[in-house]
């Protein structure tokens, strides 16, 4: 009977020692090895990279024990230099582990092309919202006499009227010709025949009218750049702000020695 008790006692001691070793190893694994392996507690704050140029990124992140990867998709902002950081993930201020990769979206080198919408006859307020929503910039607003108040009469890109569907770079500036609501006055069209284009434009605008289409005709009978025809014709009654189309002479190249 005594031998049995001694044997059980030895087994109990051995089991206690084994259990103690297991507990110790578990403690060491959870509190020492695992935190060390996963860099537990070693976090860094993600810096704000938006606005950084591509050439500045690598050294800046390397000094902070962070890495980066450029997203395939890029964006475009006309006010920023090409290859400038537009977005980042994670966002600035987030706490991440040392060595974490930051995903970056860069500003495209070339502006994407977009189709110009039709803004003519639209209200200025609505037109400005349309331009902002599709990534165009509202440029100069020129008011001209017209019965429509704040109604867009012309849309211009680099000084020229552009039609609906014309492709222009995103971020381009669009100038607008807008009615001032005072176009109910009846005017007589002045006689522009024989004037040059500059004088004719000065008289048209000074009369409360506006420039319409410019057409060129070949002739040998009048000097180059002379107004040979206009519509509506001289003396016609029109409302303030009406466009005047011009026909301007140009020399016949075959007789220009």
TrEMBL record:
Keyword annotations from UniProtKB, A to Z: Membrane, Transmembrane, Transmembrane helix
Transmembrane regions listed in the UniProt entry: 12-34
InterPro entries given in the database record: PASTA_dom
UniProt signal peptide: none
Keyword Magnesium annotated: no
Domain spans labelled PASTA: 41-108, 183-250
Gene3D superfamilies for the chain: 3.30.10.20
Pfam families referenced in this protein's UniProt entry, alphabetically: PASTA (PF03793)
SUPFAM superfamilies: Penicillin-binding protein 2x (pbp-2x), c-terminal domain (SSF54184)
Entry keyword annotation includes Transmembrane: yes
Protein name as it appears in the record: PASTA domain-containing protein
């Amino acid at each position: 009977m005594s031998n049995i008790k001694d044997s059980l006692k030895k087994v109990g001691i051995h089991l206690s020692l084994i259990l103690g070793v297991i507990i110790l190893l578990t403690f060491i694994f959870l509190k020492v090895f695992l935190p060390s392996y996963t860099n537990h507690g070693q976090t860094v704050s993600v810096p704000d990279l938006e606005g950084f140029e591509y050439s500045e990124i690598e050294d800046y992140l390397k000094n902070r024990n962070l890495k980066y990867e450029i997203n395939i998709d890029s964006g475009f902002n006309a006010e920023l230099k090409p290859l400038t950081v537009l977005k980042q993930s994670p966002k600035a201020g987030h706490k991440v582990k040392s060595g974490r990769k930051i995903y970056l979206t860069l500003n495209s080198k070339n502006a994407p092309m977009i189709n110009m919408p039709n803004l003519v006859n639209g209200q200025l307020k609505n037109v400005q919202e349309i331009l902002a929503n599709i990534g165009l910039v509202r440029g100069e607003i020129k008011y001209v006499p017209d019965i429509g108040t704040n109604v867009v009469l012309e849309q211009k890109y680099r000084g020229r009227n552009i039609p609906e569907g014309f492709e222009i770079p995103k971020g381009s500036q669009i100038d607008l010709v807008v009615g001032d609501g005072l176009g109910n006055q009846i005017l007589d069209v002045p006689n522009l025949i024989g004037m040059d284009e500059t004088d004719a434009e000065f008289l048209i605008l000074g009369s409360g009218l506006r420039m319409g289409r410019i057409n060129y005709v070949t002739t040998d009978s009048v000097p180059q750049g002379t107004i040979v025809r206009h519509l509506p014709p001289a003396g016609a009654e029109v409302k303030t702000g009406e466009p005047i189309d011009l026909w301007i002479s140009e020399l016949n190249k075959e007789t220009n020695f």
